[in-house]
């Protein structure tokens, strides 16, 4: 199909949904709307497109436990902060832990997951690049809770998939790697009061399986070794009581760790802060 014809199809949108989300939801032919998922090997994803010319930067957003790409693409608070800044939003759906159970992500946690989610996200990325005119050099992979843990695994095992990686309230689970495949740019945010995924980690029993949420600081040390920045961080403090450590004097990549006073959730202003960080990467 000629590029001009493809671009014309991508301008066809569901106007009612785009008004709520501040974006154009692709349909199709091109697929991507809540009732018309894009299908790749292993699963599906949904997309919201900004009113901007290609090539587009993009955020691949990984939902938390029990959610789905179809549900999250309809939430303006998750979509609009990105599309207003000119980013396409790609929202894949996770896989069930067991038949008929809620959707989750196949993170490295000792469980034998049916789907390889590293390969699945790679397939989503490649398909979205081809369909929607995305810029492969400006891909941010971000997620919350178990989706945040999947972000850490992607950054560690397949860092070539994104320019930057941003996680909220989810990091490595055990068994934790000693070192990652290559350096990466990582922005991790965590609530100091989070009891569901505590900063210090904890043991969890779920459906007769024993899991261990990793200690976030122990995981940060994996990144410090991988990135070559076992040095002191630059410390800063926000007026909202947040605390931040930046490791920029690395051999490659960078690390930002931000702790806020909240619990298990995405803090106010997080999306804008992450995009500012992403756009300032060297």
TrEMBL record:
This is Polyhydroxybutyrate depolymerase. GO terms for molecular function: hydrolase activity. Residues 1-26 form the signal peptide. Keywords: Hydrolase, Signal. InterPro entries: AB_hydrolase_fold, Plant_Biomass_Hydrol_Est.
């Amino acid at each position: 199909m000629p590029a001009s014809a493809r671009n014309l199809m991508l301008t066809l949108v569901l106007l009612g949904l785009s008004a709520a989300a501040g974006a154009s939801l692709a349909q199709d032919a091109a697929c991507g709307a809540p009732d018309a998922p894009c299908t790749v090997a292993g699963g599906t994803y949904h997309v919201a497109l900004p009113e901007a010319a290609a090539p587009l930067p993009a955020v691949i957003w990984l939902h938390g436990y029990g959610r789905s790409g179809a549900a999250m693409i309809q939430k303006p608070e998750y979509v609009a902060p990105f599309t207003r800044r000119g980013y396409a939003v790609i929202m894949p759906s996770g896989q069930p832990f067991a038949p008929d159970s809620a959707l989750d992500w196949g993170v490295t946690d000792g469980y034998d997951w049916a789907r390889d989610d590293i390969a699945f996200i790679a397939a989503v990325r490649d398909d979205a690049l081809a369909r929607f005119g995305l810029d492969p050099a400006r891909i941010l992979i971000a997620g919350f809770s178990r989706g945040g843990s999947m972000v850490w695994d992607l950054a560690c095992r397949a860092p070539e998939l994104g320019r930057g990686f941003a996680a909220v309230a989810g990091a490595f689970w055990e068994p934790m790697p000693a070192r990652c495949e290559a350096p990466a740019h990582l922005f991790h945010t965590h609530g100091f009061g989070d009891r569901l995924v505590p900063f210090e980690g904890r043991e969890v029993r779920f459906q007769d399986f024993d899991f261990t949420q990793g200690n976030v600081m122990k995981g940060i040390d994996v990144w410090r070794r991988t990135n070559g920045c076992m040095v002191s961080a630059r410390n800063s403090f926000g007026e909202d009581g947040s605390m931040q450590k930046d490791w920029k004097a690395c051999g490659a990549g960078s690390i930002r760790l931000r702790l806020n006073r909240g619990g298990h959730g995405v803090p106010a202003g997080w999306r804008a802060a992450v995009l500012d960080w992403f756009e300032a990467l060297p």
